[in-house]
Amino acid sequence: MFWQLSPQNLILIGILSIIFATLNLAVLIFLKKKEKEKTQKISSHSQIIFPQSPFFTVSVSEKFQKDLEALILNQTLHNLSVAKEKILKDAEKIGQLYQDEVQRIISDLKIKKQTIENEVESLLENLSEELKAEKNILSQKGTQKIEEEIKNLFLVLKEDLKKAFSKYEEEVIKEINLAKKEIQDYKNLKKKEIDEKFYETLNQLTKSILGRVIDVSTHEDLVLKCLEKAKREGFFD
Amino acid sequence: MEKFKGFLEKILTMEDLLFFLGEIKLAESVIFVKPEVPFFEKIKGVVSQEFIEELKKLESLSLFPKNPPEISEFLKELKEILQSLPILKLELAFLPSRSFLEKISLFLGKKIVLDVKVNPEIVGGAILEYKGKYLNLSLEKKVAEIQKTLSQK
């Protein structure tokens, strides 16, 4: 292989390389010298000083300098104008691009909007259909259910009314019995009062009649009889 | 007790008893007043003539003392005897006569003071109270019993 050279070959290659480099340097120095001579011929009437390089001085005439400056200015203005135009064109182009892009986005959005609207409309229609169908089902079911509910409600109501009437009937009977009892009590009380009044009157009447009918001797006899009875009973012992 | 028989005979009702007790009290009030004056002189005009006569009867029988302390003792004894007499409360429907009350007293057979109350409401008969006992023998009660029987029927 190439990188498997012997040391003798390597030394030979080194020497050859040094020779080549020396020759190259000589050619380069020569070329430099030629260029320097040429530059000295051009700057015979004016002198241009390169502040950055104190080793080189170039002299030019005043007219050339003014012309050069004017040339540079014109060129610069021209370049600026071209650049401006380019920038404007670019800006216009970019604006157009943006506008186109915006227009495209708007169009896309419109399309998407339309699509969505269509979809929504379709969806709503479907939903409406479904709802209608559901409504019909529910309506049928609802009617049946309502009928059942009404039936049940009537049954419950009937039962409640029955209970209420039964309770009311019981209460009425209770009230009637109570009223009957009160009337009976009142009757008894009045009867008792009338009886008492009757016997009181009778008592007064009897006493009055007897008191007037009984004479003194009868009174005395009665008293003596009472005393006899008392004596017999040992009342005076 | 025997020496007071005259007084006891005169006492028939509660009014009689109270009258004599009052007389005794008046007589007692003058016993020791003016010792020089005889007792009968002192009670003259103070007590009733009836009371004086009863005392004089006893004096004539030498049953009435002469000196004031003995007179006082005598009156005290009389008072105690009168106060110890049994009383019969008698409720009657009419106003009884004195003779009828005497008849009752005789009927009773022993000295009992009659405390008579007149109440026409009892119609007839009598209501008796004696030594804490009560007996209603009035016609009012009989009428009430008859009415009760009638009302029960």
The radius of gyration computed from the alpha-carbon positions of chain B, rounded to a whole number of angstroms, is: 21 Å
Order of helices and strands of chain A: HEEHH
Shape summary of chain B: elongated
Strand order of the largest sheet of chain B: 2-1-3-4
User: Strand fraction band of chain B?
Assistant: 15-25%
Helix fraction of chain A, binned, reads over 70%
Number of strands of chain B: 4
Helices of chain B, by number, come to 7
Strand content of chain A: under 5%
What is the mean pLDDT of chain A? 79
Helix and strand string of chain B, N-terminal first?
HHHHHEHEEEH
Major beta-sheet overview of chain B: 4 strands, mixed
Protein structure class of chain A: mainly alpha
Count of distinct strands of chain A: 2
Global shape of chain A? rod-shaped
What does this structure look like?
Chain A contains 3 helices and 2 strands. With 237 residues, chain A is mainly α. In chain A, strand 1 (46-49) and strand 2 form a beta hairpin. Chain B is an alpha+beta fold and 153 residues long. In chain B, 53% of the residues lie in helices and 16% in strands. In chain B, strands 2-1-3-4 form a 4-stranded mixed beta sheet. In chain B, helix 2 packs antiparallel against helix 5 (68-83). The interface between A and B is medium-sized, with 26 and 31 residues.
